[in-house]
Amino acid sequence: MKPLYLPAIGVVCLLTSVLTAYAQDTIPNQVFGTYVTAHTTCFVGPRNAKGEKTWTDCSNSTDTLKIEQNPDTNTQRELPAIVSIDLAFTNGHACSFKGVAGWSVDRLTAYSGEQPNCQIIMFFFARAAHLVATKECSAHCGARGSLDGVVLKKQSGL
118 Cβ partners below 8 Å, 6+ apart? Predict the structure, then answer.
């Protein structure tokens, strides 16, 4: 039993050291950049009288998260990043978010001027951005889209 416990401690120590590297008050430079996820989205036609799909048209899509430095010197200190997110879902549903973001310890939190209670928290590990969004962010999405739970891979760096 003891050998099983020791590797778990090693994993916890490794994770703690990785998170500690990011635990700071300013955004690490490697967080800035473009994150993407490629996937297939489809348009599905209505079913016929027999309940069969009448047609399906699928194509390649790319979800994108861009994090850039905020050029506005009036807000740059508190909100040092500009965030834009574009996601595609089945039948043309999509999410589109643009806002500013602030860094705290190990995460970036983005805010939208359009929906004041919408917050998207981004964690960065395993060369990816992991998004957690409040329910108010659904206003940035179509009926079948969501900003919550999305993972996008960094194109280069991180």
Answer: 97, 99, 111, 112, 133, 134, 136, 137, 139, 140
Strands 128-133 and 94-104: unpaired
Residues 122/130, Cβ–Cβ less than 8 Å: yes
3 belongs to a structural domain: no
Q: What is the pLDDT of residues 100-134, one digit of tens each?
A: 999 998 999 999 888 889 999 999 999 999 999 99
First-last CA distance in the chain:
36
In which domain, by residue range, is 32 found?
24-154
* Token reading at 41: 């989205």
Specify the number of domains making up the chain.
1
| Assigned domain for 147 exists | yes
Beta bridge partners of 29: none
* 9 belongs to a structural domain: no
Whether 18 has a pLDDT exceeding 60, the answer reads no
Say how far apart CA 140 and CA 137 lie, in whole Å. Answer: 6
Cα separation, 89 vs 120, whole angstroms: 19
Query: Locate tokens 């990043």: which residue?
Result: 81
Q: 84, 98 in Cβ contact below 8 A?
A: yes
